[in-house]
Design goal:
Blueprint (H helix, E strand, L loop, with lengths): L43 H8 E3 L5 E3 L10 E4 L2 E4 H10 L7 E4 L12 E4 L1 H10 L16 H10 L5 H7 L4 H8 L16 H7 L1
Antiparallel strand pairs: 1-2, 3-4, 5-6
Helix pairs in contact: 5-6
Length: 204
Amino acid sequence: MICACGCGAATSLIKYNDRANGLVAGTYRKYRKGHFSKGVIPSLQSRIDKYAVRAPNGCLEWTGLLNKGGYGKSTFNHQTKIVHRLVWEAANGPIPLGIWVLHECDNRRCIELSHLFLGTPQDNTDDMISKKRHSHGEITKTAKLTQQQVVEIKRRLGSCSQTQLAREFSISNTQMSRIATNQSWAHVVVPKRKINLRSLAAKA
């Protein structure tokens, strides 16, 4: 059977019955894998109509099953698929190898196409850091310092050696170097001391 998307290629034989998706063993598939008609995967739209709810912020939230990462999932052709990836593929075609489908809205349940965009794992990390969605500072489980201690360290870096400060605060020289170069605790800014003009005038 020729693929219904119009590509001219032949489709494969269905091996298993799948009533939910209207597939009958021994018959040919209507579409080749990854080929769709008018941007709709067979039965995907019906799943969306059943399990997706429009939120006030514009997200189209999946209310069905979620995977361990909190993303919507559903079974198609005996395979568990991530729904927001399926939505992207239905509208734009296959996702390139090594590329992720990311959320502009930061809502893992969201399957709204306009909220999705392609990116690399590094793009995802950069986006997470820019929006401060990552664990940082003293909220990190392995943190050995408090934010107040880091403020004190940064305040004294100009007058004390890194080795001396590392010993005083019981951290490694490597960690102290990372603090000094803003590779860690970069979000901590030392408050500027207020200058008492009256006091300076009196001393003058």
